[in-house]
């Protein structure tokens, strides 16, 4: 693939995304010397990177977080999901734009804004980006105690994150908001990257396809390039069932949260999602296209607030 083509694909990212341009591997290697082990010259004499290697991906992400976001300590177990930074940053920037639409075109920043990250994971990646880019506060939930402990360790080992991110264990894996969001909690928006697969076999099939696309190799038992333990990638009923449950629960917290949102990877799930949101009487629904490389996705966001309620929320919470 030519450098011009790679540059063109990067323009699909949000205009504020720090990774729109090709990776400066020299600068990133300075931020994380370990990265040099995975940088090789291609047939054109250019530095290239093995995106099919999960260890290499983790080294790259450490370098990106250090170089662009000032995060010096980002350690978590290798078996946990290692998320691609540019796509995660895009979600945060898109949500910032949604808030700006409710604030006369200005993104509300600072710790008066609180976000709820459903499934914060061991890497704590969405809160890291939200805190460093917009100085927002975060609540992060997860069903895995080890992931919560890992996320807390990351927060505590980076001074810029301290007192900005609270990690809460979700003790009932069937619940999303229940047991995490209290009656008095006020959330400006919730985000979620739901488990994609409905079974281990489904996950393996998807991984084989991804590895083949990245490396050109066929492997019977491939390692997912972004790693990930089962609860991060798999749930009964897959993406649609998880989002269905989230939408149903969101109605119960309609006055606690201004905007609810989730990534939706499968376009075929949209019809059922829109139908359910209409049935529970969401006041407003947004669909925001997302794209990194050859992958297309979208954010679906909804609110139960009428116009006057939106105005009151803005004036009581966001006014400086």
Sum this structure up briefly.
This protein has 320 residues and is α/β, with parallel strands linked by helices. The strands form two sheets. A seven-stranded mixed sheet has the order 5-4-3-6-7-9-8, with helices on both faces. A two-stranded antiparallel ribbon has the order 1-2.
Describe the structure.
The chain is α/β, with parallel strands linked by helices. It has one domain (3-318): Vaccinia Virus protein VP39 (Rossmann fold), CATH 3.40.50. The chain is 40% helix and 17% strand. The protein has 11 helices and 9 strands. It has helices at 3-10, 25-31, 54-69, 85-101, 125-134, 145-156, 200-215, 230-233, 238-252, 270-279, 307-318, and strands at residues 39-41, 47-49, 114-118, 137-142, 165-169, 187-192, 257-264, 284-292, 295-303. The strands form 2 sheets. The chain has a 7-stranded mixed β-sheet with strand order 5-4-3-6-7-9-8, with helices on both faces. A two-stranded antiparallel ribbon has the order 1-2. The longest helix is centred in the N-terminal third of the chain and has 17 residues, at 85-101. It is globular, with a radius of gyration of 19 Å. The N and C termini lie far apart (49 Å). Residues 1-9 and 210-215 have low confidence and may be disordered.
Key structural traits:
320 residues, Rossmann fold, 7-stranded mixed sheet, two-stranded antiparallel ribbon, 9 strands, globular
H/E order of the elements? HHEEHHEHEHEEHHHEHEEH
CATH class: Alpha Beta
Low-pLDDT runs:
1-9, 210-215
Kindly name the structural category.
Answer: alpha/beta
Overall form: globular
Examine the coordinates and then state which fold CATH places here, giving the name of the CATH topology.
Rossmann fold
Strand content: 15-25%
Total beta strand runs: 9
So how many helices?
11
Distance between the terminal alpha carbons, to the nearest Å? 49 Å
Under CATH, the homologous superfamily reads Vaccinia Virus protein VP39
Report the sheet with the most strands, covering strand number, pairing sense and barrel closure.
7 strands, mixed
Helix content: 25-40%
Radius of gyration: 19 Å
Look at the structure and give the mean pLDDT.
86
Write out the strand line-up for the largest beta sheet, numbering strands in chain order: 5-4-3-6-7-9-8
């Amino acid at each position: 693939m030519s450098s011009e083509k790679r540059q063109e694909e990067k323009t699909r990212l949000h205009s504020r995304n720090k990774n729109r341009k090709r990776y400066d591997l020299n600068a990133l290697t300075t931020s994380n010397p370990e990265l040099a082990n995975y940088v090789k010259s291609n047939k054109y004499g250019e530095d290239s990177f093995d995106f099919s290697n999960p260890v290499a991906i983790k080294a790259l992400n450490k370098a990106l977080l250090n170089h662009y976001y000032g995060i010096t300590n980002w350690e978590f177990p290798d078996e946990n999901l290692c998320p691609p930074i540019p796509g995660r940053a895009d979600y945060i920037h898109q949500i910032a734009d949604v808030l700006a639409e409710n604030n006369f075109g200005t993104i509300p920043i600072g710790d008066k804004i609180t976000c709820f990250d459903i499934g914060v994971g061991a890497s704590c990646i969405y809160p890291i980006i939200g805190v460093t880019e917009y100085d927002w506060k975060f609540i992060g939930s997860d069903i895995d105690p080890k992931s919560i402990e890992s996320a807390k360790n990351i927060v505590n080992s980076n001074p810029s994150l301290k007192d900005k991110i609270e990690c809460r264990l979700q003790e009932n894996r069937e619940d999303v908001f229940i047991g995490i969001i209290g009656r008095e909690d006020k959330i400006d928006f919730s985000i979620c990257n739901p488990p994609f697969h409905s079974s281990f076999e489904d996950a393996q099939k998807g991984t084989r396809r991804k590895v083949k696309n990245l490396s050109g190799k066929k492997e019977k038992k491939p390692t997912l390039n972004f790693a990930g333990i089962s609860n991060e990638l798999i749930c009964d009923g897959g993406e649609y069932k998880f989002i269905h449950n989230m939408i149903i629960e969101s109605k119960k917290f309609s006055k606690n949260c201004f905007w609810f949102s989730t990534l939706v990877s499968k376009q075929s799930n949209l019809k059922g999602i829109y139908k359910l949101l209409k049935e529970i009487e969401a006041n407003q629904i947004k669909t925001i296209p997302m794209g990194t490389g050859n992958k297309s996705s979208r954010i679906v966001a909804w609110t139960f607030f009428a116009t006057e309620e939106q105005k009151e929320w803005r004036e009581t919470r966001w006014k400086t």
